[in-house]
Amino acid sequence: MTGLTAELVVDGRAPRTPALAPNGQLLCYVVAPISRTGDHLDTELWLLETDGAAASRRATTDTAAESRPRWSVDSGTLFFLSDRADRGTSQVHRLTLADGAATALTCWRAGIIDHLPLTDPNLVALLAEDEHTEQDTRRAQDRDDAIVVGEREPRARLRLLDLRTGQVTTPSVFGDRHVVELRQRPDGGPLAVLTQANADKDYGPRTGRLHLFDPTTGTAEDLGPVEAEAHSLAWWPGEDGWHLGYVALTPPVLQAGTAVFDLTVDSHVRCNRTSGLPMCPTELHQTDTAPLVVFADGLNTTLARLDHAGPTTLSQHPGQLEDLATTPTGEKIAALTGTRYQPANVHVGPPTGPLRKITDTRPELDGIIFGTQRPLAYRAADGLDLDGLLVLPVGKSASDGPFPLVTIVHGGPYDRYADRCQLSWFPSAQWLATAGYAAFLPNPRGGQGHGHAFAASVAGRVGREEWTDILTGIDLLTAEGIADPDRLGIAGVSHGGFMSAWAIGQTDRFRAALVLAGVTDWGMLAATGENGQFEAALGGSTGWSGIGPHPHDAVSPISFASRIRTPVLILHGTEDTNVPLSQAVYFHRALRHFGAEHEFVIYPREGHSIRERNHQLDVLRRTRAWFDRWLQP
């Protein structure tokens, strides 16, 4: 048996986006490294027979970023994106199974964002930005490239690739709107097209509209507005004609649970098909008949069929199931799922289950002993049912406690902990368990998996009831003799980083804290973060909401910096546009002003997630050393 090392955590590879051939016999999936060592993230396409008759094989031998595998209707051709010719600029490629040859189909200077092979074997729909003109190039070379906000902003447009001629044409439809997603009707009819006013993440997701586009005539029809964050388009036939569905946030609160919305195309009548359910849809998938819906269901996952009367449960899966793919008949599916002690791999089978594991992308973890993981169920102070996970130190049982306990809060807040393997480059539960720590992974209100009301309850109230939800769980583990009340730590990334920063401004119970890419001032985040309107919904106000006092000040950790006595490690990437570096700088300056013990580490070139191998190793080692310093006797 070997022990878990930081290198074992970050040097692994993970499967992504499985794609089933329409005949169900072949599957293509992407293999991506967990960390990046160079300027580009090199990924690979692999092919596998779903009956397990042969081992997986590389689809190509290129060193490139390969992604978005899509099958032709006859299952004989695989289309995918690759940047092998010009790194960082993806083009559509075609792999013909008969001869194994892969050829580039486009040379679009701006690169291809996405693609969809149509039922017409000669057409592929593309999403791509406009190509740069010679005038653009001259202006850049002359440094006459001032950016005027609102002018010449990049937008993805619908384009058509004719495989007979190799020509790419751009239909004059949708005006200057940014195209987000495409889905063709199962019978080969029009395309459903989802657009936004622009690509800006703050404004665009609130301006979605649905359209129909006929690739034969080149004409389009506007079906009207859709709810915020719409995605996952799917068609299905009904007695009253064709229906078009999608997953989106439940109005009117921007921070809310998701729902499946159903638009009857002929009448333009729209309704919420998952209203009142105690779980949250995450994916909607088209078949020839009724679509399939993936639900986050507490700590686990439910797969259902969207029938006329509502969702019909087909199977339930422990932990998390995601990246679902299905054959057109819906009789076979592929998805990523794992266990408490095995990272996710591709599984196949009928939607009613069981699913069979057909890949093994992390054999290096075989033989590693993990800490025992168990689900928790408890009630909040106001009686609300809550859940979470407890991971014990490696080789220990609950009776061996009390242990130093690190509470790791998830991000979002519209995210969740599922009962799956808790191992990642972030100081995850299993990484800490190898060093003798117990880890508490709470799912407080505001998160995913318990319906709309559960998620929406934190809007304008972050740090209130969700904080007491977490504290109640810590008190429970302390009372059970699992947590040592004198050796408590707290950690989190993004919204979890906010909760960590918030916690140490509310209590001195924690002996150490970690804030990675954390929110410290909601007003500033609403003004500078890429998702400003969503952050404003969480914080409750913006800086331009009058002269104040503002509601967001009362829920911002920076307002309580003078109270902080807990040593805190602050980690942040310089290129983070989701939670900008200024959030960490603000917190650091406040702590320095008040003389609070802290360490501030900035990672160059990193965004909201840490991607470079050496930086991931530093996060793992530095954070465990930080907790060792303050929590170990």
UniProtKB/TrEMBL annotation:
<dbReference type="InterPro" id="IPR001375">
    <property type="entry name" value="Peptidase_S9_cat"/>
</dbReference>
<dbReference type="InterPro" id="IPR011042">
    <property type="entry name" value="6-blade_b-propeller_TolB-like"/>
</dbReference>
<dbReference type="GO" id="GO:0004252">
    <property type="term" value="F:serine-type endopeptidase activity"/>
</dbReference>
<dbReference type="InterPro" id="IPR029058">
    <property type="entry name" value="AB_hydrolase_fold"/>
</dbReference>
<dbReference type="GO" id="GO:0006508">
    <property type="term" value="P:proteolysis"/>
</dbReference>
<keyword id="KW-0378">Hydrolase</keyword>
<dbReference type="Pfam" id="PF00326">
    <property type="entry name" value="Peptidase_S9"/>
</dbReference>
<protein>
    <submittedName>
        <fullName>S9 family peptidase</fullName>
    </submittedName>
</protein>
<feature type="domain" description="Peptidase S9 prolyl oligopeptidase catalytic">
    <location>
        <begin position="428"/>
        <end position="632"/>
    </location>
</feature>
